[in-house]
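Why run this: before we spend reagent on co-expression, it is cheaper to look at a predicted model of the complex and decide which construct boundaries make sense. The entries below are exactly what would go into the expression plan.
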Amino acid sequence: MMGPLPPDDRGFTLGDGLFETVLAEAGVLVRLPAHLARLAAGCEALGLPAPDPAEAEGLLREALTHAGLTDTRAAARLTLTAGSGGRGLDRPAAPVIRLVATAAAARRPADPARLATSAVRRNDASPASRLKTLSYLDNVLARAQAREAGADEALMLNTTGEMACAAAANVFWIEGGRLFTPALDCGALAGVTRAEVLAAAARLGISTHQTRATPEVLANAEAVFLTNALVGVRPVVELDGRGFAPHALSAALAAAIS
Amino acid sequence: MMGPLPPDDRGFTLGDGLFETVLAEAGVLVRLPAHLARLAAGCEALGLPAPDPAEAEGLLREALTHAGLTDTRAAARLTLTAGSGGRGLDRPAAPVIRLVATAAAARRPADPARLATSAVRRNDASPASRLKTLSYLDNVLARAQAREAGADEALMLNTTGEMACAAAANVFWIEGGRLFTPALDCGALAGVTRAEVLAAAARLGISTHQTRATPEVLANAEAVFLTNALVGVRPVVELDGRGFAPHALSAALAAAIS
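The model came back. Tokens follow.
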């Protein structure tokens, strides 16, 4: 559906749903199968029926066309909700999912990212922490804290103080030629680009480590970068006031996945 | 507004907003000032402008009238969102809040509650854990787990294993004539009825304790009950298979706040 939403939609009333943000380059939906596979896995984790992939793709294409964005760089967003109804928190016995697609122009950020560690923690004690859900208020609050600190993205720790991810990206670091990123069970979002970068690094013969680590380990890091579907690999130039220089390995990974 | 929602509403896309569920008895909005005060406090915590109380009340009354529920027992729900727009997680510089009201019939539950402890934890490391936000998926998941366990409500612990609240209620227990409930900074929702019960207990000369406690303390409890705006005081008859008998003090508190 492309029109207005009913106010009893559970995505609206309870954040009961998921979303995907897909990069569209001149009408080509980049890594769409990986996005739809993640969405289906999220539906399974939440106990919701998975969407029909052809319908999902059709809605995304329709949104791009409707917004006049088929010949430029755009973000196509697919929102899936648990649909209408149920009594309070309880879903109907057989929820009927609702799909909504929207599209907006998306420039690639020209600058590297400045990060600030947020006091808002990722709830790694919830399965939702690995999913891209409509209950994203903690991420909104973390981002707002980062902006107040003069940064443009938040580093989020989990409830035991280990690094999880950024508010809208995964985080990687490089040390001694090796590539590190928080393990998913730290409360990290299972990023499509995160997986792509890990696979590209393996192809390039780089040693990769999905790990549990507190931010102190970054004292020894040579570089830090963020990943998501819209920015690809985005270098971090600063974290909580400490500077990081550009790094050949980040550039190689950015090129490998583009 | 009573009509359909725009799909770029941040309540829908990111769970960026708050809600109140107000008991309406034959058209009377019970404890409306306390609900609107909590909503205003939530707006301040989230960095959103507070709604006009007269407009909020008008929308709730309109929803009750529209649903034909002005002469019965009903739940009137007010949803407040951060409105439309912004780029991704970032809100517009001056967000314009959106208010939506709905109403539904609400019978008082005839039976006492059966509770099951959920594996989904309250994120006490987020300010959102004290607020009634639109990012309520953890509560939906906790409730679903309780239903699967044959119970009808979930007891939620915080990230350090202390009791916080139920999925859609606060939790109290009685031991040696004293009344206990988790402190707000355990990740408990700041319930309107919770505050009402604490005040009623103080008036009745009952010793009250807002405390940090793991569920093991319930081994010594004589009674457990839940509170929320729709059920008032609801006795708990079972928690994880252990039975609890009715208790005169729960009944006295139920009478004192009704």
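Chain A touches chain B through 50 residues (CB under 8 Å). The mean pLDDT of chain A is 96. Bring this page to Monday's planning discussion.
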